[in-house]
Amino acid sequence: xxxxxxxxxxxxxxxxxxxxxxxxxxxxxxxxxxxxxxxxxxxxxxxxxxxxxxxxxxxxxxxxxxxxxxxxxxxxxxxxxxxxxxxxxxxxxxxxxxxxxxxxxxxxxxxxxxxxxxxxxxxxxxxxxxxxxxxxxxxxxxxxxxxxxxxxxxxxxxxxxxxxxxxxxxxxxxxxxxxxxxxxxxxxxxxxxxxxxxxxxxxxxxxxxxxxxxxxxxxxxxxxxxxxxxxxxxxxxxxxxxxxxxxxxxxxxxxxxxxxxxxxxxxxxxxxxxxxxxxxxxxxxxxxxxxxx
Amino acid sequence: xxxxxxxxxxxxxxxxxxxxxxxxxxxxxxxxxxxxxxxxxxxxxxxxxxxxxxxxxxxxxxxxxxxxxxxxxxxxxxxxxxxxxxxxxxxxxxxxxxxxxxxxxxxxxxxxxxxxxxxxxxxxxxxxxxxxxxxxxxxxxxxxxxxxxxxxxxxxxxxxxxxxxxxxxxxxxxxxxxxxxxxxxxxxxxxxxxxxxxxxxxxxxxxxxxxxxxxxxxxxxxxxxxxxxxxxxxxxxxxxxxxxxxxxxxxxxxxxxxxxxxxxxxxxxxxxxxxxxxxxxxxxxxxxxxxxxxxxxxxxxxxxxxxxxxxxxxxxxxxxxxxxxxxxxxxxxxxxxxxxxxxxxxxxxxxxxxxxxxxxxxxxxxxxxxxxxxxxxxxxxxxxxxxxxxxxxxxxxxxxxxxxxxxxxxxxxxxxxxxxxxxxxxxxxxxxxxxxxxxxxxxxxxxxxxxxxxxxxxxxxxxxxxxxxxxxxxxxxxxxxxxxxxxxxxxxxxxxxxxxxxxxxxxxxxxxxxxxxxxxxxxxxxxxxxxxxxxxxxxxxxxxxxxxxxxxxxxxxxxxxxxxxxxxxxxxxxxxxxxxxxxxxxxxxxxxxxxxxxxxxxxxxxxxxxxxxxxxxxxxxxxxxxxxxxxxxxx
Lengths: 293, 635
Hints:
heterodimer; A: six-stranded mixed sheet; elongated; B: alpha/beta; 35% helix
């Protein structure tokens, strides 16, 4: 891997006036165009007022189609920093001001769409809710580990989605009330029991952090097991359906693969007690089997 | 070419509901979406779903509140449909397993919301949208409905007839973001647009970055009118630094707004002596900004929203998500101190003109959800009415497109019914940039297909047709022709070697709109916005894509989105300049009264010969059994 330094050597980190003029070193026509263009830009008054300092990002780059990016590397960006700035804000600044080909997923920027989970300073995080002030510099931004990289920070999520779908991730019940306006009642306690499990935003951070999932491609993984928990523990589905769900979870690559390392729980941006849910399902599985002994 | 009976564009609440409904009617349905469905912005909705579910409440009361909230600019047939269908649709979600908050007896909880005469907002904590989106996506998986995710829809494939009302939609053209492949999608029965709001027109918005109004812009350029675009809702409680939404549920549960003197501003200064913090959103947004402008704001920027007195238990039970948002995005623990809040762009009441079955004036083209305007919100949307809109009109559009008979719509679309021509004095010509080079990369205003103005193309193809020449007449041919045009557009954008980048243009548009077309609007500011937009359009003719890759090229996608943002920003501003009155969310400095005599009508904009044509159609105040008489709106 090579590293590309995009900051002129003589520039200091506190030189915010010229921070926007950071350019990409290199000799491709595209990079030359950018260099020329950036040379003319000055920061907006707003940016000047806000930026007390600049922050140093080291960002993973890879593009299978572009010569010079086929070999993975890290690019350095120096972004004007303001209080409250998140990793996502810094990435957007780098993209909009320095290199429009910098590619990453993001949408809601409020921790609910789950699309900007990345590997930041060695840990899976949602970029939009990660404050730069909480991180050591340089801030290293990489794609989620254990997933195929499509380009820059974008990974292939297909396997993650497949595992989510393998657990029949939808409500199934035989006890619906007859009337289309009648609710199928649920106790407050039961809703409380499944509440945390319903908060999953499918960001993939947990799968990416799990050593077992990394070594066993068939392992359902913490997100899918949590999804199964959400339904298995919902009293409205009934006992028959719970047994059906437990059969899926008891299979070879189901709950028993979990080695209780807690890494999923540690990285979950929605604070879902994933490991605890998996453990509870293991206990259920044992209880289920005991019945037949 | 891919082929399905019904193609849904967008995979948020409305799109998912439409797809499920179409499949239930037996259609082969597919969803094409630039985001994976669970990434859709519906997930960020917090507050809840209004539905008359309880004794003491009725759909009629819900309809009355909605009509009043709309400031009498909503169409009664659409509003009555919303309120009649919402209870059934809400319970349908419950039957699909949605994790609603529960009362002690196990029924779904309901709470008070702004502008409602009954606590009829059904909710799941402060994460109702997240629960709704995921519940609906689960049903999609269960039914095996095909999703083309991370495919960006570039354009519609619509026939050529001179009058939009005679045209028909036969499919779409989409771009596989991952591979760069451009493909046609033939829709045998119909296309449903469910692409959400245009929040990215503004720079302080609760909306996702993906909310660029693509569907509305595509329909507009295909000939469907945009309706009531000037009515943009500003939510009174967004976090100042990011625009992240703090649900109205906070005020619904009893949260209080204070100015810097610690005065309870809604009462102290008489903005809403009865409803206080629970007045309608437009009223509260103006109250806050008036306080800030009068020097009673905090740091001259925001006011305080305090919920500490509700107690930790109640907050965690009903508003837990708010605690996290406030901590993560503003660094404030709302259990310990009040949250800073200010108004931010939140919702577009206007959009693609549809009837109450979701159909537009182009046959086979539907729209539902925030991108559509069946006119249920009029000039001001009540909190808790967006999610029922998604499920009610999503289902209707899906079922209708799949062939279900929903009865004849009472709302007419296009220029079929009563309408009057409009005129507005603009400082610069809106619409297409004239004189742009034939090879100009990027259609600063031209039809995105051929570099020629659309009507010229239509005229020439009509001439060819009369000669018996080769004209796209079958649905397949119309889709193929649209695919070719999009290939050319992308090639031009990708092959251009230098120019302006989308981010600069987008940012200029957002800043001008936030400055001039915000909560408070005045004539000169609106005109300045039009000048700024003109300049942005001109710069857009020189736009280029710097990233040469066909793999996951977000530079290209955002460049095309920026064109859509431009069209919508212009429509919003034109409508705001034309409407010489103060109604709902539309405040005009020069016109401080609601003018029922002249303005009980919808603002319509049609893309005509490369420029926006302004016209009006009357509001329908006659409901099934009663007529809604406009009354003074006080809270």
